[in-house]
């Protein structure tokens, strides 16, 4: 039997009783490590720490051990499985899992969120079926439904979009058309849009690669500030008024964790950046000739008085609000902060 | 402290460890009984059994007791809370929950699915905040993300719709515009649409009411067959080609339960009905003059050879497929049955 077990939003005690039974009955347990991370202390986007993949994925260097302890299974019995492993070494994962065979064992693949929220694992399920292995899915919460925590109805969202880190040469903006479709519907209220923000945990450094060295970049997690800036940059380029500086948005961080944070503000307010960013900019300004500050930078320093974005460490998600119902309006008021 | 605890898809062991801790720490535990039901043996739409609300909501007359046993809490310590109770008697629910007060207790409201997947409980959260009660939300799976089990990407759904039981005089079809918007997007592939099907567990019998008697109707749960027929009836009326008889759909039943069922077929195939319905129609036909069969009925009997819809008891959901990716196509092939 192959169990695909959702870990929910990521704390060890977010697993379900059904999932825990599956883990404890399994001869081998893998933790999928490429589509999400467990929350906890992870380096933020600006950090240059060279965290190991394990510490990033599990939230601490001893994260896998913490999971083993929480699940009452032997130490070192959870193995990290990256994309290549799941896709190319599925024979190893599925070994001896055939239904009714003499040496049949259970195997569990742990997945942060819900195991089937993307089609990523359908291929593994199909391979399992081909070799006569039964598959059991243990569902759990994912950002797709837990985003309801901000007070916007989960049933009033249009298609979700992904926003990846822009580089100087690569700025994919296919999200723009989707947001446009969600917000400018014929004869109908605008829908909300959930923006899933980029996670880069195992990227190779392209500069080092050009020298023949395979060195990984430090992990990066997009925050709501960068997402807002990228969104506004694309609106400037495309100019179809899918949204604008005044568009109301909700920033969410570490949804479901004890230190979950939610903030409401306009895209422009989010774009101004976190207190940390603004402090760094102010320090740069102090150490430079005033004349070197360009107008945009100066404006950001002056305007950076709103705390919409004080959301702290990753993971962040951003919601672009559509038309609000009265209840949604009231629910969002909870997160509105006064400018200081 | 007020805990809003998601029960996930409904079996007792679908609760998370975090949710279980909340329940076990609570002086009072309520089960929200109006937006969903726990799975198990529930009367289907055609049944005339007069099941009690408790047996319907919890799946068996001893359902609440089974939950108490599963959670290792005292017998009879879970109270059913219907809509009126949650909305109008929130003072009773929130009694002595104020943060830091001398007699502070924890209280848990159990909710099938995810507690914040609709805005239903935002009002209770706001009332709690007003009186100084901390609120902790324990997320869990809901149909919104668990629908991924069929193999269609959860990120490629447009706005979800609700389909309610039509009567002779009341046939609300606001879902039509939403499906149209999901399927006919400008410059873009069509999105999938999740159709949430009506549940009526505490409806008063209007005929009895007109005689001054308050008698509840037996519970009804819409199945995929009726949903498909209502959808096609509305298309016939509206005629904007939002979908049609050939539109591919996925029927899902008891998602996440051990006896979960999934079937793929066209809307027309689903509309033909279940084996039970077809057998009943055949029996009626045998006991009547052949001439009494109208053309539509005869056609349904003749065409009813596809088992797309053999999904069994509630709860059912229906997905209208948008444009399929290759992986989605392959994933759906698993559920395709051969006509018999």
TrEMBL record, chains A, B:
Pathway: Protein modification; peptidyl-diphthamide biosynthesis. CDD domains: DHP5_DphB. The keyword Membrane does not apply. Keywords: Methyltransferase, S-adenosyl-L-methionine, Transferase. It holds the Pfam family TP_methylase. Belongs to the diphthine synthase family. S-adenosyl-L-methionine-dependent methyltransferase that catalyzes four methylations of the modified target histidine residue in translation elongation factor 2 (EF-2), to form an intermediate called diphthine methyl ester. The four successive methylation reactions represent the second step of diphthamide biosynthesis. This is diphthine methyl ester synthase.
